[in-house]
Structure formats: C-alpha cells, structure tokens
Q: What sequence folds into this?
C-alpha cells in the first residue's frame, strides 16, 4: 500500500516519467482494420459472404465493392431489413446482395452455402449455442467467420454487468470470451486467431476527433444527478439504455470491456 509520504513527498512531488512515456500516441488502429483482417484472409471474386446481423447492409455493400463478392445479409429486425433493401438499391447492387429477414439462430440458408461470414457487433445479442451452430451449418468446410464482439473482462463488476445486459439486450452467456470460444469449438468452428483490441479503436477515435468521451461523461453525470426525475419522465428502460450507451466506450478505455476480433474456421464434418 502507498504511504502518504510516498504519495505526496515522492510520487506527486516530481515530474512523472511514466506520464511522459504515455503522452505520445501509440498509433492505434482504427475501425477500418477489420476490413484489413478480412482482406488478409484471401476472399476471391464470386465467393459468397453472409453478413450475419447485417442491419442496413453498409458492411455487405463494402465487402462486395472491395472484393467482388456476392453477399447475403440477414437481420431479425424488419426495420433493418427495409433499410438494407433501400441501401442496396441505392448502391445498384440488387443482383449482388440478397436481403433476408431472419435470426442467426435459424438462418434461412442451405447447408454449406456460404464461403465467408462477417459478424460485427452481433454475437452478444445471440444465444451462442444455436447461433454458432447455425453459422457452422451454412459455412462450407474450410470457410471462415470474422467476428467482432465487445466482451466483458474480469474488471467488470456484477452490478455493472447487470446494467449493461439490461440496457444492451445482451443474451445470457454471450458476454464472456471463454463461453464464445468454447461454444465455437464445440460446434466445429476452430479459433483460427484472436486479437483483443482493448481500448485501441477508442484511442484512435479520440486522436482523430471522431469521438469525445467528455460528452459521454457529462451525460452520465447529468443522468446520475437527475436520475429519479428522468426515470419518472422517460421510464427506467430509456434511462438505462442512455446510461449504457454512454458507458460502452468509456468502459472500453477503462478495461472493463474488451472489443475482440476472432477468425473462426469451419472444420470438416
């Protein structure tokens, strides 16, 4: 334990070499590095990629344009499917991209019908056992699945975890790296590689000015300050969702959440 003498008489009484060492950028990677990972896996024109939980098809459109792939985007939210159809039409890619409504736990696709799966910011909302079993079913043997998921770390306290699970629609058991990796292996998806990004993307966002944690911290402080009043006016759910949205990036910087990139490979049956 640090003593008062050590703290005030030594550590805080001189300029910190540690702080000087951390003052410069660590050259963090940005969000586009996910596309670089996918490109490094060697997709070839004409192959089929499933965008699992594709939302508005922004990733499917990018993958088709970059690599000459054909794509199927599947999302369980009708509003997302409609946005995806509009985006695909606006991009002039109706022949290359098929938009379907459906859940990852019951994919409306044939066995071994896709060469690749892109799955970004989705798996924490999915029941892992049926979800990854379905991904393995539709992926051809030797095919790969690129997963980006923000997962809990040992620093996340139980009450914090409960709040995040309530406010982010996180499925039970889908928030832990150990569970994800075990379920993947059990369903024939070998962990080919794993990259634990920690706060790297958030650092890049701060350095390039696309995200300011001060805004999130002010929002959190004001939510706490006026909590009872805001709950009465807007309801518990809306207040908790706002809190979780603000906490998400801050917790990545604090190490309570760890954005992680997996490449999973479908093994021979």
A:
């Amino acid at each position: 334990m640090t003593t008062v003498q050590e703290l005030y008489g030594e550590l805080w009484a001189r300029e910190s070499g540690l702080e000087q060492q951390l003052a410069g950028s660590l050259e963090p990677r940005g969000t586009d590095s996910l596309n670089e990972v996918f490109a490094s896996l060697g997709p070839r024109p004409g192959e089929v990629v499933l965008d699992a939980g594709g939302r508005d098809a922004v990733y499917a459109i990018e993958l088709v344009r970059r690599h000459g792939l054909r794509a199927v985007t599947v999302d369980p939210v009708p509003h997302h499917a409609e946005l995806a159809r509009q985006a695909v039409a606006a991009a002039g890619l109706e022949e290359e991209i098929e938009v379907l409504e459906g859940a990852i736990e019951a994919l409306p696709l044939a066995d071994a019908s896709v060469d690749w799966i892109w799955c970004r910011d989705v798996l924490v909302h999915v029941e892992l056992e049926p979800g990854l079993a379905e991904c393995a079913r539709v992926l051809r043997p030797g095919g790969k699945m690129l997963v980006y998921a923000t997962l809990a770390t040992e620093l996340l306290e139980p009450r914090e975890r409960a709040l995040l699970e309530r406010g982010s629609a996180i499925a039970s058991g889908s928030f832990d790296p150990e569970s994800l990796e075990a379920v993947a292996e059990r369903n024939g998806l070998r962990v080919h590689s794993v990259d634990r990004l920690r706060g790297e993307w958030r650092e890049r966002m701060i350095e390039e000015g696309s995200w300011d944690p001060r805004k999130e911290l002010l929002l959190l402080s004001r939510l706490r300050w006026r909590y009872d009043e805001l709950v009465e006016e807007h309801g518990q759910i809306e207040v908790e969702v706002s809190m979780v949205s603000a906490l998400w990036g801050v917790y990545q910087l604090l190490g309570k959440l760890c954005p992680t990139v997996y490449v999973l490979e479908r093994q021979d049956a």
Summary: The two ends are 55 Å apart (CA to CA). The domain at 27-201+256-266 is CATH 3.40.50.150 (Rossmann fold). The mean pLDDT is 95.
